[in-house]
Specification:
Elements (H helix, E strand, L loop, with lengths): L5 E5 L4 H9 L6 E6 L10 E2 L5 H8 L4 E4 L9 H22 L3 E7 L27 H20 L2 E7 L11 H4 L3 H13 L5 E6 L11 H4 L13 H8 L7 H4 L15
Parallel strand pairs: 1-2, 1-4, 2-3, 4-5, 5-6, 6-7
Helix pairs in contact: 1-6, 2-3, 3-4
The chain binds 1,4-dihydronicotinamide adenine dinucleotide and D-galactaro-1,5-lactone.
The site of D-galactaro-1,5-lactone has 8 residues, from loops.
């Protein structure tokens, strides 16, 4: 597919949306913004719910691709997750199909595989085709989103890159995040690669920086042309001094999903 220029960014008022609004225009994209909430300082952003099919059709009309970040981003009730993440993502795919959009980059999450034991010592990195083990209703909705993406590729030729994001924040704030952190700059590099790589069909990748303590294999992300530039290691000494090393016997330290695996999930993670 030819390089997309106009991209609909859903979830534009959120944390990641705000970071990407700042970083992606330098790659030449014209961003159209959408969120349930107004986007501060951007009066022409579209304020719409993922439940509003007509608004979504109008929002995707004429765009080359969609970067789909909108939705509930932590654990919640099944009913709320169902509406925003399951039905909402379906509504977006239907709108994209109806309007002939060629590609979606979907913000999946490490919580689609959150119950996978984290590697220790010389264990191999977790491969991208590890069986899915969602750790929450939230993680289940991301697993659904990945299957939905596969279905729309197989049935309708609508391409998706599903990015199982680790933690994308300005800095890592926990010892677990040393392994799964994606710097905002690397996030923009990865989304750019996902928007521009040729012939992706439905490709699933992990989203993180080139962390020294990385838990998963970035091979499928690198195959898109992603070259991470950052590493969380400069934060390690301080975070470990403050919080201690991950405890092998603590269930919330034993799996990729961290505190999301506990019932109920314990915040902060
Ligand atoms: P966030 O919670 O800060 O932003 C989500 C945005 O989606 C909010 O502005 C919210 O108003 C909007 N939204 C929620 N429901 C909506 C609906 N029904 N219709 C329209 N807009 C709606 O989350 P964040 O951190 O920015 O994450 C963005 C996406 O990336 C989410 O899908 C999240 O699951 C995913 N993700 C983020 C990670 C991270 O480290 N930030 C890690 C893994 C996945
Ligand atoms: C996610 O999926 C969340 O959206 C984000 O807020 C973080 O909690 C991240 O996972 C994480 O695992 O740290």
């Amino acid at each position: 597919m030819s390089a997309p220029r106009t991209v609909l960014l859903t979830g534009a008022a959120g944390g990641l949306g705000t970071l990407m609004r700042g970083l992606l225009p330098r790659y030449g994209y014209e961003l159209r913004l959408l969120d349930l909430r107004p986007v501060e300082g951007v009066p022409d952003a579209i304020t719409a719910d993922l439940g509003d099919r007509e608004a979504l059709r109008a929002a995707v009309r004429g765009v080359d691709a969609v970067l789909h970040l909108a939705g509930i981003s932590l654990e919640s009730t099944f009913e709320k997750i169902l509406k925003a993440n399951v039905e909402g993502t379906y509504n977006l795919y239907e709108a994209a199909r109806e309007e002939g959009v060629r590609r979606i980059v979907f913000a999946s999450s490490n919580h689609a595989v959150g119950f996978t034991p984290r590697p220790r010592g010389d264990d191999p990195l977790i491969p991208i085709d590890t069986p899915r083990r969602p750790d929450t209703f939230y993680g289940l909705s991301k697993a659904f989103g990945e299957d939905l993406a596969q279905y729309y590729w197989d049935k309708h030729g609508l391409e998706t890159v599903s990015v199982r994001i680790g933690s994308c924040f300005p800095e890592p704030t926990s010892v677990r995040m040393l392994s799964i952190w994606m710097s905002p700059g690397d996030g923009a590099r990865l989304f750019h690669a996902a928007l521009t790589a040729e012939h992706v069909g439905h490709t699933v990748v992990y989203g993180s920086s080139a962390n020294t303590r990385l838990w998963w294999d970035l091979k499928s992300a690198r195959a898109l042309g992603y070259e991470p530039q950052d590493d969380s290691e400069p934060y390690a000494e301080r975070l470990i001094a403050e919080q201690g090393e991950l405890e092998p016997d603590d269930p919330a330290h034993a799996r990729l999903g961290g505190h999301f695996v506990t019932d109920p999930p314990i915040w902060p993670y």
